[in-house]
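re: ur question from earlier - yeah i can do the single chain one, its not a big deal. heres the input i used so u can compare w yours
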Amino acid sequence: MVDDAAGDSPTTIGLLCGSGALPLLVAQALARKGIRVTAIGIKGEADRALDDVADEVHWTGLAKLALWISLFKAASVDAVLMCGAIRKRKMFGNIAAMLPDWRSFKLWYQQLKSREDHTILGAVVAEFEKEGLRVRSVVDYCPELLAAPGCITRRRPDDAQWRDIRFAWPIAKQVAALQIGQCIVVKDQAVIAVEGIDGTDAVLERGGALAGEGAVAVKVARQGHDVRFDVPCIGPETAETLRRSRVAVLAVEAGRTIVLDTDETKRAADQAGVCIVAATEEEIAAAS
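and the output i got, formated as tokens:
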């Protein structure tokens, strides 16, 4: 069992699940720890395999905040974890087309002061906690998912690639601080592409297309980011994107990045001949 920060042992965790493998991995990890999982899967985003992993699954639309609160309260969850991605472009169309419930409508049109990720997700967290639903971070319960310092792959950055990593790191931090994105692509100490609303895979593909072979990508956590909903994440699909885009190296932040299935990510990256390395901010600063 996992002890939370308050010293008690949770018996039921609520998962609010978007897309990707993370919700499945978290549900499996919690089950191994003897914790019951009540999952809410966002239709069109979350993997239907949740039905085979979680103890209880409810499938809902994207803008159903009042329903989510009701379902988690009914399940008497000890904490809520928000995991998985939501395609950001969905949030910038007409929210009325999503058939929002009254609470989502009020949040979107009356309470949000901006449409930045942190603002939107932070407001959702605040609504949960108003109702006595404590929101925690995935890494509180599954710290084993965080990248350890060092090279994940057989291939390591060469000296020129390390120079590009050290060049890109502080720029990526500034981009993240502005809530633009978490990843940039560089080559020969020139910025080639910056992540925006299109996400990490898209910036790798754009950067690779512009730079040709041998580009370097750096993906970092935002300074002061809220780990309840904002932990950078990579996995086997990232390795495939690196291969397809011909980006040679991806550097991520050790201890602040989730790696989905480290063994499979390593296998896919090694097969693709690309490098994935987890560095610390102290390591980058010391070498600069």
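DSSP finds eleven helices and 13 strands in the chain. not sure if urs matches, ping me
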